[in-house]
Amino acid sequence: MKFAISSKGDPVSNSILQRMKTYLLDFQLEYDEDRPDIVISVGGDGTLLYAFHRYRSRLDKTAFIGVHTGHLGFYADWVPDEIEKLVIAIAKTPYQVVEYPILEVIIRHNDGGREARYLALNECTVKSIEGTLVMDVEIKGQKFETFRGDGLCMSTPSGSTAYNKALGGAILHPSIRAIQLTELASINNRVFRTIGSPLILPEHHTCMLKPVNDVDFQVTIDHLTLLHKDVKSIQYRVANENVRFARFKPFPFWKRVRDSFVGDIGSER
Ligand code: NAP
Prior knowledge:
- This protein is an alpha+beta fold.
- The chain folds into 2 domains: 2-95 and 248-262, Probable inorganic polyphosphate/atp-NAD kinase, domain 1 (Rossmann fold, 3-Layer(aba) Sandwich), CATH 3.40.50.10330; 102-240, Probable inorganic polyphosphate/atp-NAD kinase, domain 2 (Tumour Suppressor Smad4).
- It is built from 5 helices and 15 strands.
- It is elongated.
- The site of NADP nicotinamide-adenine-dinucleotide phosphate (NAP) has 18 residues, from helix 2 and helix 4.
- Involved in the regulation of the intracellular balance of NAD and NADP, and is a key enzyme in the biosynthesis of NADP. Catalyzes specifically the phosphorylation on 2'-hydroxyl of the adenosine moiety of NAD to yield NADP.
- GO terms for molecular function: NAD+ kinase activity.
């Protein structure tokens, strides 16, 4: 089995990377940064997002494992104290693969139909470069509303605990193949109106944003910020690809949510 390790870059994560690499090589596993079967991310969720994008062209052949070093680590199952256990599990145990849906974003431009396709593990946000974002929102080819406000966020189920949560979106179990649209400070008054609630779209529904005035936007895909000019439309749907995680022990999603956001507060009662 071939493996790669991606580190947050701080001294603690780098030293764990070195230890894991040495142990796994001792177990006769092959280190291959270009074509790994498993990718171990050491750091926080930001490190896992980086690793996801580094290997996005081979998602069907790569399974991710997260080790968290002091960060939230929503995607990470392992802590530094468990490194030896994890290495033995990787070397000796056939692992189970858990697949989560991800988001496909297609940005089409006015000039000659140029288009860019992205995959997001957490979400895509769209904001205007200057002033209020004004976008027509279409769902399944039908106009739904004209949005006016700071921006729009489309998240995946596993990304629903990230930016989406801060925007009042629901936390969605990743077995639900859906995407969720939330608003960033919409303008709502007698003249302008938006739905105001998060919308959860199933796998077979496409959401399209169409510029009303400005055609230049700031688009984020997870941790990446991009500038897109002369945009004709931004299309969202559940991607055909999935992200795959290698699981060596059960860590149910709701336990992950509880550990990350509720902790032990209130458990005394
Ligand atoms: P960052 O600003 O350094 O970190 C954002 C925080 O979000 C970190 O604590 C990170 O955990 C956590 N996080 C990432 N994915 C998560 C998930 N699926 N569930 C729960 N928490 C998660 O930015 P970054 O490290 O480059 O990560 C980019 C992400 O930041 C974006 O995808 C977006 O979701 C999030 N973000 C959130 C807000 C907000 O909540 N208001 C605003 C902008 C962006 P770790 O500490 O383990 O890395």
